Structures are given as C-alpha cells and as structure tokens.
Amino acid sequence: MKAEIITIGDEILIGQTIDTNSAWLAEHLHPLGIRVHRILTITDTRNAIREAVEEAFKRADLVLMTGGLGPTQDDITKETLAEFFSTELERNQEVLKGIEDFFRSRDRPVLEVNRAQADLPKGAVILKNTRGTAQGMWFDQNGKVLISMPGVPYEMKGIMNDGGFDMLRKRFKTPKIIHKTVLTLGIGESFLADVMSDWETALRNEGLALAYLPSPGLVRLRLSGFAENGTSEAVSARIDHYIKELRRRMPQHVFGFEKETIAEVTGRLLRERGATLSVAESCTGGYVAHLLTLVPGSSEYFKGGVTAYADSAKTELLGVPADLIERHGAVSEPVVRAMAEGCRKRFNTTYAVATSGVAGPDGGTPEKPVGTVWMAVAGPENTVAQCLKMGRSRKGNITVSGLMALNWLRNEILSEQFEKSE
Amino acid sequence: MKAEIITIGDEILIGQTIDTNSAWLAEHLHPLGIRVHRILTITDTRNAIREAVEEAFKRADLVLMTGGLGPTQDDITKETLAEFFSTELERNQEVLKGIEDFFRSRDRPVLEVNRAQADLPKGAVILKNTRGTAQGMWFDQNGKVLISMPGVPYEMKGIMNDGGFDMLRKRFKTPKIIHKTVLTLGIGESFLADVMSDWETALRNEGLALAYLPSPGLVRLRLSGFAENGTSEAVSARIDHYIKELRRRMPQHVFGFEKETIAEVTGRLLRERGATLSVAESCTGGYVAHLLTLVPGSSEYFKGGVTAYADSAKTELLGVPADLIERHGAVSEPVVRAMAEGCRKRFNTTYAVATSGVAGPDGGTPEKPVGTVWMAVAGPENTVAQCLKMGRSRKGNITVSGLMALNWLRNEILSEQFEKSE
Q1: Are A330 and A314 in contact (CB under 8 A)?
Q2: Is the pLDDT of residue B418 over 50?
Q3: Do residue B111 and residue A194 have CB atoms under 8 angstroms apart?
Q4: Between chains, do B307 and A279 touch, taking CB under 8 Å as contact?
Q5: Which residue of chain A is at minimal alpha-carbon distance from B105?
Q6: Closest Cα to residue B114, out of B92, B93, B135, B133?
Q7: A-interface mutation test, from B7, B16, B32, most A Cβ less than 10 A away
Q8: Do the Cβ atoms of A317 and B317 come within 8 Å?
Q9: Is the CB of B15 less than 8 angstroms away from the CB of A26?
Q10: B126: pLDDT confidence band, cut at 50, 70 and 90?
C-alpha cells in the first residue's frame, strides 16, 4: 500500500519551520503496512496544490495532506480540493456550532473568517478537530483516498489518533511491516557493515531488510520484514534471531533497542544493582551529567558531578594532586584516573566516570591533538582508563565523548558482574 | 530564481529521522534570493531518484539533493546521477588521499567501500567534504545546476558554507533579501506580539517583513526587506532602526543577534570584564555547564561547576548547611542562595549561578508543583534570587531554566556595571 504526504506551507519552504508532521505520520503509518514513498512540501497556491495532488494520485492509493486550512484568505486548500473532487463547499451546521463554542469558551469573538471554517466540501467525511477550528476531511473517490488536515501538529495528531488511523485500518487491508531497531555505540557505520557483512547477507537472503541510521557517535540498525496473513510472530522471531546474533558478536557496542538512550540503559543497570554514580567532567563540560539527568527518576542513582574545567577545580573539588597535573598535563591517564577516584570518594558513589580531553578548536598540541580524550571509570573493584581519538568539531567531540563514556560505564558494570559470577 | 530540494532517505519516509537539512538549506538560500518552491523526500532507488530529478528540472533552475551518498551498497545516488548526466564514475586520486588520511588520523582501517567513495562522476565539480568521506558534487548542464551532498547535517552544512553558497552566488545573480535576526529570551511569542504591535505595524508599513520564530524559551525575530539595485545599505539601516527600538523597549529580553547563543553572549561579557564564572546546578543537572562549555575558549572565564543532585552533594561540595535544606527543602530561596554563594567561594569566581527546582515528571507537591524553579546569582556585590514557574515537560523545564539562568546572569552583569557607573 503506497502513500504520499503533501505538506502545504511557505514557512517550511523558507526554512522558518521544520516539517515534523510528515515524520510523525510516516512513523505511525508504517506499522499499519502503509508505506510512505514520497513526502512533498509545496507552496500555498491553487496550481501547486492541484499539480501535487494529481501527481500523487498517479502513484499512490492514499494521499495525506497537512496545512493550508487556516482562516485567512491565503489558505485555499479547501476550495482547491472541492474543485478537484468536483464538489462544492457547504456550511456544516454541526461544525459551525463547534467553532462558535470554541471561541465562546475562550472568551473570544467569533469572526466571519472563523465561521467560514465550517464551509466544507459536500461528500467529504469530516474528521473532527476537537483542538482547533480547521476540520479534517476524508475524500474517497475512484478507489483512492485523500485526507486533508490542519498543519498545527497537535491538531493533526489529534485528528489521526481520534479516528483517522482507525478509518485507514478499516479501509485498506495490507500486509503488516514488523520492524525493530537496535542501537549501537562506538563503532562506525562502514566498519559495522564490514564486520557484519555475512550476517547482513544471511538476513537479506531470508527476505528481511536492514537499514543503517547513523548520527554522531551512534548507529541505529533497523531490521524489518513483511508479515503476510498470520505470520507476524514468525517474522518477529526471525528478526529476533538476527538481533540475538548481533548482540552476541558485539555486546560492547549494542546498548539498547528502539527509542532508548544510553543514559536510560545505564541508569537501569545502576538501579537494578542498587548502585550509584557520580561524574567528573573536564572536556565534556557537564554534558554527561545533562544526559543522565534528562532521564526521569535519575536522582535515584545519580548523585551529582563536578565540571572541573579549571585545574584548580580538579585539585580542590576532586582532590587531584597538583603535581600530577603539572607532570603529566590535565589530559593524561594519571589525571583522569585521579579525577574518577576523587569523584567517587567525594560523592560516595559505587561508580564514577571522568573525562579529560582536548575538545577544540584550540588547545591541541602535536602530542595531544584536538580530539584526544582520556576517560576513566572508577568502580568498587578497580579503576580503568582509555584514550580515544575523536574528530575536529568541538560539539562533535563533546557529544561523542559523552555517549562513549556512558557506554563504557555500561560495559564496566556488566563485566564486573560477569567477573563476580565466575 | 526557483530551486527545489530533493532529500533521499528511507529513514525519513518511515519517520525515524526528521529532515532538518531542507529547512536549513531553504533558510540560507532565501537571503540569496533563491526561492525554494518544492521540497521532496524520496526513497533510495534508481527510479525514484531519476524521476524526481527529471520532474524538478522541468520547473526549477537549481536542484539541491541531500543523502544517498553513504558507503554501503544501498546508496546508488552517485551512479544514478552519472547516468542522468551521461557521464561515468572515475576514481579521484586527490579525494582518495583525503579519505585515506581521514581514516588514518582516526586509527581506523580504510575499507574498499570507503575507497569507492572517491569514485566520482567525470565532469562534475567536486565540493570538498572536510568532515566526512562522501563528497559534494556540482553538475552544470543545459543552464541548470544540480548539487548533490551527503545527508549528515554537519557535513552538508560544511560543504555549503565552505564554498557551495559562494558558487551559487556567482552562478545566479538575483535581487538580494536583507535580513537580520534578533534573539529574545524570557518572553512568549504572543505576549511579545501584543506589546510590540505598534512597532510591528510601523515596520510593515515601511515594507519590511517580520517573522516570529519560537523555540523552547527563546523567540527569534527576523526582520527582512528586499534590496533593489544599490539600496542594500538603506534597507539595512531601516531594519537597524527597528532593532534599536526593540532593544530600547525590552533590554532584558533582547540578548543577541543572528546565530549567537546566550552562552556566547554572556561569556563575552565575562571576558570583557576579566570576570569568571562557576555554576551550581540541581534541577538543570549539568545543562548550564554544557551550554557554557559548548563555546570555544570558554575555559578562559568558566572555571567549572557542581551538579548537586543529591542533598549530600549540596552540603559537602557546596557547603550548604544541612539544616537549611531540612527546614526549607532543597527547592527554596535560602538553599539556592547558599548554593550560589558556596559555589562562588569554592571555585573562587566573580559570579556563580545556582538552580534548584522540580523538573518533573515526579516530585511535585501542591506547594511546589512540577515546573517550580529557584535560581540565584551570586556576585561581588550581592546575591539575588528568583522563582520561575515552568511547564510540565522535564526536558522543557531543563532547557528553559538553563537559558533563563544565563540570561538572568547577563542582566545582572549589565546592571552591576550600570550601578557602578552611576
């Protein structure tokens, strides 16, 4: 089942607004087996709308439109669609009452432009908008469906959730797509593809699909397959089989699934063990603490951190010996170890993570170029440290170091448990 | 001058990724007088790419493409474009050397799939990518231009900023749009529009345009005007006049211009005064430190911070008396003041900022509901504190509190100077 999305809006075409509606619609249509194969943003003119709808119907069975339904004169989507479907506008009394109530309940006057929002194409099914005054419209002609909705994200989502998706489910009966996403950290897209090429080939030979979705420091792998009648569980099990194999082969890199964050996963491990955490950050400058504290309930295991940007902060707040910094430099193994150990002691936590590096753009030397990052994890058993080489972008270095530090902590927690259970 | 943008990526069509590249491109083409009238997202197949390019060239003089240039097998944009422009791929030795250096500098092996990224269409001008291995390509045939770039946002932006926009400027000569952006914090969009409505009317009557661009906690105001031949300076001066008036009327809220961040602006004020800063964060959990340390060179004035999530961290690392927390609660004026003063002492800085609040979703009480945030600024003269009421989203509360804390510090630094100069 092929669908296309048409977004109407000059604000998107001049870059003032980012179109988030299309991604939301695509994400929610996908599990219904409705495949969006085009997303088009156009300007709010009769010609552009007409041309886009005509084109879309050549290829797709379903067209979803957002935007262009505002009360002002420049919104002509409704008229254009009425014309396209050879019908005319007619004032809908029930909708009119809803609009008048909407304004009355907000103590605002009802203008004629607002009343005119109750003028709707005859023959279209109205998808009620309970959050605003522009209604959704469902046209079904010649075996093809067009849904037009307002562009305000929460109104559009409301219309789809309130009944739009249900109507689509009933109207189109299509094979279901099952997909699962595996999250990896600390391994590049091409290296991953190379190491796992036999696995990828086997997976594709079984009719499953694989997509690499990289973002700084992180690669998401999406495995998907079509489920014909009643085969959902079998397809799901096949995907699980490949996920299990991936995890077995790279346990250090696979940290989670679907929409999890590394901070959530690591936090859960800490909580399960009744363990606590503190962080001592130099180059990551508070980013690791920020990632951790974005997670609701993190105060249960995260006790706090020190952003030790100045050397004096390293010595005074974390107890790093001044001569250690003098001898080895702040970006060094002895110092990052002392930071982690000092932090663990100060906050009295099970674990402490420390970072010290050259984030850039300045501060690099031939020995320690921009992108050199030392990190350490101090735990109940011992302290471990490693040096990473990042790139040249300050923001990239901060982001990737922060994610890698948390993933490394995750691995240390898991390996300690492993050692103990031996 | 009409342009179209084509985005290639299944991850967008299934809603896993939101296309931010198109908005960025559209925003940056607009001031060059290049009008984007279509943004199209398609799937990564030869047919879809070919069809999209053919269609786009029927209407537009310029087509910008992003995505589909990865090293894996499923990326076939390069081949498709070579075919479309009747040319062939050829290994570019200079690009190859760059790719090999890229991997070597990161201590990673160069795979054949990476080397193959140096296979580029003969006759295309290469737009160098210094941040990754997929190059940009510029095709100029039959009076029309197509630019193909990788989909990774910071690589694509790098390619355009490094030379792409300059080449467009030279190749197409069109009327210029002048626009300037004013950044405000701590005042809502509709309230701003209401208070400044006379100003907005006057501005529009002069033929200038105004756009409100809100994001959490922050509203950007973009003023723009068309400059006909030789009138650039006059239009620029007219815009400046309105900006000056806006600043005069809301100096607390207007913190900067264009792409500045509040951390950059505040950092500059500190540097100019030879002043230093430390932060004590509870509810913002490291976010203020993170904002500050994203700025290159921030170590000059930012000495560090404490994320004091646990009460024990507040007492032990910041010297907040335990009985103060017991009597008033951690989210209270006395505690946030003590945090700021303790922090200023520990780090020995000119200023210290402290936050303590209920970020949510849990932890709210009838007296201190979710969104209650206390913040304090301790300076050489005195300590000031205020309580803000935020919303219900944890991430929103963290983001907005962090920005507001820095803006408040900015205002405190400026007002102290004012007091002294009197």
Answers
A1: yes
A2: no
A3: yes
A4: yes
A5: A389
A6: B133
A7: B16
A8: yes
A9: yes
A10: very high
Quick check: A421 pLDDT over 70? no
Residues 6+ apart with CB under 8 A from B58: none
CB atoms within 10 A of CB A91: 12
Task: Suggest the residue from A215, A293, A311, A349 to mutate for an interface test with chain B (most B CBs closer than 10 A).
Answer: A293
End-to-end, the C-alpha distance of chain B in Å comes to 54
* Chain A interface disruption, residue of B7, B278, B307, most A CBs within 10 A: B307
CB contact (8 A) between residue B108 and residue A193: no
For residue A311, which amino acid is it? Answer: D
Peptide bond preceding B380: is omega within 30 degrees of 0, i.e. cis?
no
Nearest-Cα distance to chain A for B157, in Å, is: 13
Rounded to an integer, what distance in angstroms lies between the CA atom of residue A383 and that of residue B194? 58
Query: Which residues in B105-122 are b (16+ Cβ under 10 Å) and which e?
Result: eeeeebeebbbebbbbbe
| CA-closest candidate to residue B374, choices B342, B333, B418 | B333
Chain A residues with CB inside 8 Å of B290's CB? Answer: 285-287, 289-290, 398
Per-residue pLDDT, B421 = 44
Report H helices in A301-389: 311-318, 322-328, 333-347
Q: How far apart are the C-alpha atoms of B214 and B221, rounded to whole Å?
A: 8
Question: For residue A275, with 0-12 CB atoms within 10 Å meaning exposed, 13-18 middle and 19 or more buried, which class applies?
Answer: middle
Structure-token match 């909705």, residue found: A149
Query: Of B23, B285, B317, which has the smallest distance from its Cβ to A15's Cβ?
Result: B23
**Residue from A297, A295, A326, A332 nearest A311 by CA:** A326
CA distance A229 to chain B (A): 22
B250 compared with A209, residue with greater pLDDT:
B250
- How high does pLDDT run on average in chain A? 92
* Domains with residue ranges and CATH for chain A: 2-171 (3.40.980.10), 182-257 (3.30.70), 264-421 (3.90.950.20)
Q: Which residues of B touch A16 (CB under 8 A)?
A: 23, 27, 211, 213, 222
Find chain A residues with C-beta within 8 A of B50's C-beta: none
The whole-angstrom distance between A142's CA and the closest CA on chain B is: 25
A133 pLDDT band, cuts 50/70/90, is confident
pLDDT of residue B422: 39
Q: Average the pLDDT over B126-131 and give the result.
A: 92
Q: Is B21 helix (H, G, I), strand (E, B) or coil?
A: helix
Contact A361, A394 (CB under 8 A): yes
- Give the type of residue at B156: M
DSSP E strand boundaries for A110-175? 119-121, 125-127, 136-141, 144-149
Determine, for residues B309 and A308 on separate chains, whether the beta-carbon distance falls below 8 Å. Answer: no
* Four-CA torsion A396, A399, A403, A409, nearest 10 degrees: 110
DSSP of A267-321, one letter per residue?
Answer: HHHHHHHT--EEEEESTTTTHHHHHHHTSTTGGGTEEEEEEE-SHHHHHHHH---
Task: State the smallest CA–CA distance between residue B369 and chain A in angstroms.
Answer: 16
Token pair recorded at residue B40: 């199209």
- Candidate from A20, A48, A287 with C-beta closest to B286: A287
At B321-361, the pLDDT tens digits run 999 999 999 999 999 999 999 999 999 999 999 999 999 99
Model confidence, pTM:
0.79
User: In terms of pLDDT, which residue wins out, A417 or B393?
Assistant: B393
Shortest CA gap B421–chain A (Å): 31
Give the integer Cα–Cα distance in Å for B305 and B299.
12
Residue with tokens 């069109």: B174
ipTM score of the complex? Answer: 0.78
CB atoms < 10 A from the CB of A367, how many?
8
